[in-house]
Amino acid sequence: MEEMEEELKCPVCGSFYREPIILPCSHNICQACARNILVQTPESESPQSRRASGSGVSDYDYLDLDKMSLYSEADSGYGSYGGFASAPTTPCQKSPNGVRVFPPAMPPPATHLSPALASVPRNSCITCPQCHRSLILDDRGLRGFPKNRVLEGVIDRYQQSKAAALKCQLCEKAPKEATVMCEQCDVFYCDPCRLRCHPPRGPLAKHRLVPPAQGRVSRRLSPRKVSTCTDHELENHSMYCVQCKMPVCYQCLEEGKHSSHEVKALGAMWKLHKSQLSQALNGLSDRAKEAKEFLVQLRNMVQQIQENSVEFEACLVAQCDALIDALNRRKAQLLARVNKEHEHKLKVVRDQISHCTVKLRQTTGLMEYCLEVIKENDPSGFLQISDALIRRVHLTEDQWGKGTLTPRMTTDFDLSLDNSPLLQSIHQLDFVQMKVPATPILQLEDCCTHNNSATLSWKQPPLSTVPAEGYILELDDGNGGQFREVYVGKETMCTVDGLHFNSTYNARIKAFNKMGVSQYSKTLVLQTSEVAWFAFDPGSAHSDIIFSNDNLTVTCSSYDDRVVLGKTGFSKGVHYWELTVDRYDNHPDPAFGVARIDVMKDVMLGKDDKAWAMYVDNNRSWFMHNNSHTNRTEGGITKGATIGVLLDFNRKTLTFFINDEQQGPIAFENVEGLFFPAVSLNRNVQVTLHTGLQVPDFYSSRASIA
Prior knowledge:
Layout: E1 20-22, E2 28-30, H1 31-36, E3 39-40, H2 47-53, E4 61-62, E5 78-79, E6 90-91, E7 93-94, E8 100-101, E9 124-127, E10 134-136, H3 149-161, E11 180-182, E12 187-189, H4 191-197, E13 209-210, H5 212-221, E14 239-241, E15 246-248, H6 250-255, E16 263-265, H7 266-321, H8 328-374, H9 379-400, H10 420-427, E17 441-442, E18 448-450, E19 453-459, E20 470-475, E21 484-489, E22 493-496, E23 504-513, E24 516-517, E25 524-527, E26 545-548, E27 553-556, E28 562-565, E29 574-584, E30 591-595, E31 611-616, E32 620-625, E33 628-634, E34 642-648, E35 653-658, E36 661-662, E37 668-669, E38 676-681, E39 685-690, H11 697-705
Antiparallel strand pairs: 1-2, 3-9, 4-10, 5-6, 7-8, 9-10, 11-12, 11-13, 14-15, 14-16, 17-19, 18-19, 19-22, 20-21, 20-23, 23-24, 23-25, 26-27, 27-39, 28-38, 29-34, 29-39, 30-31, 30-38, 31-32, 32-33, 34-35, 35-36, 35-37
Main location: cytoplasm
Keywords: Coiled coil, Cytoplasm, Cytoskeleton, Metal-binding, Repeat, Ubl conjugation pathway, Zinc, Zinc-finger
Protein name: E3 ubiquitin-protein ligase TRIM9 isoform X10
């Protein structure tokens, strides 16, 4: 039952639902919490004004989410009413469950009614804290949403089953044990909170305070309210609208918007949906059973991997001990490889165990919640949530069927040390009359550089009679340092990528055969490009990214942020590139910056520790790295805006520009390593990349002064 507790808690206050209402998106919220997150909208967007102008088509109008952004995962603690320039920004808060919510648009008026019954401000808007869909309330306000009686019943049974002491509902941090309950306020208090919030004077002096246990019993024994129609509050639900998938009363059928819809008997649809939910739970139960068996299998794999590792290490040590002392260093290297493989297998299996355990707990919680819902005898209340539960059960079952119950790692070690050929070769070692190959000749006409890549070509001398089995190409570090091998093989042409821009490299080649190696060729000096010319890389981009204009222009097919990298990486020098905004609809917040090659591609740039970015909307920008937002700066982008990115490895800084003006301070310092240009965007944005640009003059002059 404890695994079901997450299903019973409000995403805003983090406590068990109190008087939950059902939003049109099928999510639930406390009625009091719903009042707290209301936002007042301009008069022109109200349902009354839309109906007056002839544009309204329903009692509730969903806001255009592309024009109004009340919640942004990439925002840095602030929400704005993006559809109207006159609307002020409003700081957002976080609920105990980590969901961002907005405070009331205005202080609630003084009233003697309870907060849940007090009238809401005109032209109010509410945003679901879970799916973030927004809608404008009509004249009925929150009374227009149906109450979730089934959820209330499940919570009552769940709380009755828990033997834990009742906690105070007003303690801000660690709730203390409740000492009394007010029957009129329906709130549990500890002694300090009772003295502070419920003094025995004025109107509160007439309230009846009872012990917490008695209060729980009185809650449980209070008669369950009959579910009534939201459009006709005096009428009970009697039929079920098949088209709208909701219970309705007889007045809805005679004069309301359901008059022309197909309807069926409430009891028959109640039994049908209960049957469908039960059938869906049967499939999910089978998946949960398979998951439990799969967890046992994974735990057994851990033991098998450990046993196989010990056996393999013993065999490897025995084989290595048979070799001569010259192989001891190699033996240590082989052991390191085995240990690495061992740890890798264990990590993969343990990670899969952890992932499967979490998924199983969530599945079990959903199953228990659904079973409790099935026990409900309120047809209309059940039908209000049954469709959403059935979809969730099917979705959870589908998630178990996508290879989740297949081990990602085998228990066997795909390594085998066969020392007999080596021992035989040692016994057969003998002198051979053979010469080393001649020194290769670099073919200068075929050697070239492009961006930060170098292509070299060579051949054997024309009169050479000693064959070469292969060649070794060496380059220095671009600073006159030691040479290092960059290619070993039989080919006579090689392209080396990933060099530093604006650097001078020395290259040389030598040949080898069984007898030995030749002399080095003459050293070739290579100069890489001063500036970088590159495009976006389709190979490493998210599948939702759409490329055009020879991979210089990108957009996205998804409403979610997706990441695309440039083809060229930088690790040295000063580099500057620009991106122009070709299309900018509905005020999204694209991000621009640099990233590692293994950055996450399905979230906004800067959400993980592999990217350093600036994300910007039409009003302001932030810098973000590892999901940390800093340096909010006024000034945003529109269609036609130009974003400049300056990566300076000499000063180890990353700086951003908008329309040739620096945006905020230096964004990031101590920037070291290999970075790729990166952008994240959704379908509302299209940008074009411009490369091969010199560093701006004002930055060069500033750097020289510094």
